[in-house]
Amino acid sequence: MKEYRNPDQILESIRTGQYQRKQVVDPDMGSIVPRRRKSEDQNLSMDEVIAQYIEEIEASEPAVKKEDKPIRPRSREDFYKDTGLTEDPAFMEELERMQDKYPGLTKSEVFRVIQGESGFNPKARNKNSKASGLFQFIPDAAADLGFTVDEIIEMEPTEQLRLYDQYLERWNYEGGNSLGIMQAAPAYANAAPDEVIYARGSKAWEQNPGWREGGDGDITVASINRYYRNQ
After folding, report:
1. Dihedral of the CA atoms 161, 166, 175, 104 (nearest 10)?
2. What distance in Å separates the CA atoms of residue 182 and residue 179, rounded to the nearest whole number?
3. pLDDT score of 228
C-alpha cells in the first residue's frame, strides 16, 4: 500500500480504506514501538481519527531543525558589506574621494557595478572578451587608459578603482547619470534622460531586458538610471 504524508491524502485514504498505519521506531531503544489499540467502546469522530494519525506520523518522523541562516541586509547600502572590500581602508578612502568628485554617486552604485561585472573578484577574466578585473575592462578600453588587461588583473582593488575613475574622466562623466550608463554606453555619459541608447528590437535591446523602458520599450538613459539606482 501507499504511504501518505499530506493531511489531504490521509483524509482521502481513510475515506477509501487505503490508509496504511506506519510502525514507529523508538530512537532511544532502536526497536519498534507497538501501536496502542483503541478500546472497543472508544468512539472517535473522523476529525479525531485524522488528528490521531497525523500525530502518529509526526511522532514517527522527528522534525528536522532548520539551520539558522544569516539574514542578508535589506538596505541597498548594506548589501556589499560582506564582500571584503569594505575592510580595505585604502579602497574605501578612494571611494569616498570619488563620491566627493561626482555628485550623486553612492557606494551602493559602485558596488553594484562591481557585483554585476566581476562578482567582486579583482582577478576575474572573461575567457571570450578578455575583459579583466573588478570593472571588466576590455583590451581596447585598457589600452585607451595606458594599460593592458594583464596589468589590470594584477592590480590591487584600490588601483583598479583609481583606474575606473580615470575611465570616468576619459568620458567626461559628471555624476548626473548612473554608473550603469558608463557600462552600457559611455558615450551617453551626460545625455538627457529621454535619449534612446538602444532601440527596441536591437541586439543590445534583446540581450538586456532589465534595461528596457516599461519592460518592452526602448532602452533609454532614464531606464538604465532606474535599473541601476532602484535595485
Report:
1. 30
2. 5
3. 81
**DSSP 3-state assignment of 134?**
coil
The interaxial angle of helices 7-16 and 46-60, nearest 10 deg, is: 120
Architecture of domain 74-170: Orthogonal Bundle (1.10)
Q: How many Cβ atoms are within 10 Å of 79's Cβ, its own excluded?
A: 16
Helix/strand/coil for 64: coil
Q: Among all chains, which residue has been given the C-alpha cell 569616498?
A: 96
What does the pLDDT look like over 125-166, one tens digit per residue? 999 999 999 999 999 999 999 999 999 999 999 999 999 999
List the chain residues with pLDDT less than 50. 1-2, 4, 22-26, 29-41, 64, 66, 69-75
Asked if 134 contacts 114 with a C-beta cutoff of 8 angstroms, the reply is yes
Q: Are strands 219-220 and 24-26 parallel, antiparallel or unpaired?
A: unpaired
CA–CA separation, 14 and 231 (whole Å): 50
Domain boundaries, the chain: 1-30+44-62, 74-170, 183-231
Q: 585598457: which residue's cell?
A: 142
